[in-house]
Amino acid sequence: MHKVSLFRSIQLKFIVIFILLLLVTIQIIGAYFVRGLETELRENFEESIEATVGIMEVNLKQAFSKDRSDDNPDTPSLEDEVQDIVQVNNTRDVKIQVMNMQSRIIASNDTTGGSNIGKKTTKDFITNVLRNGNENKSNVYDEENNRIYRRAVPIYDDEHTQTGALYVEASLEGVYSQLNDINSVFLKGSALAITISAFLGILVARAITRPIQEMRGQAQKMAREDFSQKVNVYGKDEIGQLAESFNDLNAKLKHSRALTEEERRKLSLVLSNMSDGVIATDRNGYITLLNDAAGMLIHQETEEAEGKFLLDVLQLEDRSVDISELPDSGSMIIDFSDENTIFEIRAKFSTITDEDQDVSGFITVLSDVTEQQEIERERREFVSNVSHELRTPLTTMRSYIEALTEGAWEDKTIAPKFLQVTQNETDRMIRMVNDLLQLSRMDNRSESLHQEQVDFINFFHGVIDRFEMNVSEHITLERDLPEGSLDVWLDQDKMVQVLDNVISNAVKYSPEGGVIHFDAAVQNGQLLASVTDEGTGIPYDKVDKIFDRFYRADKARSRKLGGTGLGLAITREIVEAHQGSIWAKSKEGKGTTILFTLPLENQKRRGD
Ligand code: ATP
Ligand code: MG
C-alpha cells in the first residue's frame, strides 16, 4: 500500500493547526497581561516612593523651619536632624539625598564609595529643582544600565522660602525581576499548555483521521478489486455517514462485480462448449478473444492467436478483403484444404457497435462445412454421373436404330444383331434405373428390411451352390466355412443381393483358372465373412472408393463387363442397414478380398 509520509499526513496538519491556534491565543493573552502587570507594578512602586517623599517633605519642612539661634542650645544641628529623618525613611535600594540651596548635600543614605555629605551635587536633575523650585521626576537608566526612578522636590520653610531639595532615587530592577519571574511562570505554563494540547491534538487528530485512514486503505483495496472488508463506523457524524456510504458503495460494487463475473463465466462456458468457433476482434481487426473450437478450426493455439490480425489468421489477406468492408452478418466460405485433406470453413461476420453506433469490434463465427460441401459436391457429381451413364447407352441405341431405319432392318443378318444390342442397352438402362431406385429408396429409408433369424453358414452355402452351377469350369470355388450354425438376423433377399454382387465381381475379375475363396468366422462377437479372388486387384489408392456410386476402378474394362458401378454401393447400403460394415483389401495383380461383418443373433439379444 502506498503510505502517506508523516509530514504530509492530515494528522500532522491537525496538530500544527491546533498548536498555532493555541500559540496565538497565549500570545495575545500574555501581551495584555504582561503589559497590564508592568503598569500596575510600576504605579504601585512609584506611589510608595511618593508616600515616602510626602512624609519626608513635611518632616524636612519642620526641620528647616526650626530656630537654631544660640538661645536654644538643646536643638540639634540642621545636618543631624535631616540625617535622622533620612535614616528613618531609609529603605533598601532607595537612595535619599537632601541638598541645601548651595547644592551641597547635607544628608544622604548613599554610602557607596564613602560618604558624599558636604559635596556639591552636579546633577542637572537636582540643580534644576533648586533653581526653578519645580518638581522633577523621570525613569532612566543609570551608569550600570539599571532602570531607576528619580524624584526631586523643593523644600520650603514656614515662610514659603525654598530652603533646599529632596532627591530620591529607587531602582526599578526589583519590579522588573518580579515581572520576569511572573513572565517565566507564564511561559512555563504556556509551554505546559502547548505540550498538553499537542498531546490532546494528537488524540483528537487520531480520532478524526483514523476512519479516514481506514477508508483510504479500503479504497485502495477496492481499487485492487478486493471487496471482502468493511470499514468501521465510529459515529453518526459526517465521517460516520461517509463511512456508511462507503460500505454501501463497497457492497454495491461487490455485487455488480459478482454479476459481471458470473456473466463472464457464463459467456466463457458457452464459448468453450460451443461447437462453432467464435473470434472477437477490436475495431482494427486484431483478435481479442478466441474459443477452443475456433482455435481448432484455424489450427492455432488460443493464446498464440490473440493479438494477431483476423484476416491473416483466416488466410484472407491475399483475397484483398478490407476489414472495414467485411459483410455485416454476411458469410463466406474459406478453403483451408491442403494436398491431403479437404477442409472448408464458413465464416459469418457481424460488427459490434457501441451506443454511438461506432464500430467497436467484430465477431466472427466459424463452422466446419467440409462435410456439407462434400455432400453438395457428391450430389452434383451424382447427377452428372447419372446423366453421363444414361447418355452412353442412349447414344449407342440411337446410332443402331438410325442404322436400322436407314435400311438395315431389311438385312436379315445385321438386323437381329442390331436389335440384340439395343435390347442389351435397354436392359442395362433398366438395371441401372432399378439400382438407382433401390439406392434412392434406401437413402430415404423408405425400403424396410424384412429380417428373420437365419443360419448364416447354411445361407452362405446355398448362395455359393447356386454360383457353382453357373460358373465356368476354369474357376474353382473354395469354402472355408465353420461347422455348425451361426444365427444372424437378416433380410434374406437383400443379403442374397449382397453376396451375388460380391461373388459376381470376384468371378468377373478372376482370371482363367483362378480360385475364389469363401471364409466365415466369429470375431469380436461378430460374424466376419469374406470373399477372396486372385484377380486383377485394385490400385492401393482406389480400394476405398469402390463402394462409391458409379465408381469403377478400370472404367473401360468394367463397362465392357457390363458393370454400372452401383453394385458395391448398394451392397454397402444393405450391409450398413444390417448394422454391419464392409471393406476391401487388395493388391494390384494379386487379388482382392471383400470383407463384411454382421451382428450375431445371440450377441444382439444379449446386447438389447
Ligand atoms: P455392377 O456391379 O453394378 O454391375 P460393377 O461391378 O462395375 O458394376 P461394383 O460392383 O460397384 O460395380 O464395383 C465397382 C468397381 O470396383 C468395379 O468397377 C471394379 O473396378 C472394382 N471391383 C469390384 N470388385 C472387384 C474385384 N473383385 N476385383 C477387382 N476389382 C473389383
Ligand atoms: Mg459388381
TrEMBL record:
Residue ranges constituting the PAS domain according to the UniProt record: 263-320
Main location class: membrane
EC code: 2.7.13.3
Subcellular location: Cell membrane
Residues spanning the membrane: 12-34
Keyword Membrane on entry: yes
Molecular function GO labels: protein histidine kinase activity
Keyword Glycoprotein belongs to the record: no
Record protein name field: histidine kinase
Organism: Lentibacillus kimchii
Lineage: Bacteria, Bacillati, Bacillota, Bacilli, Bacillales
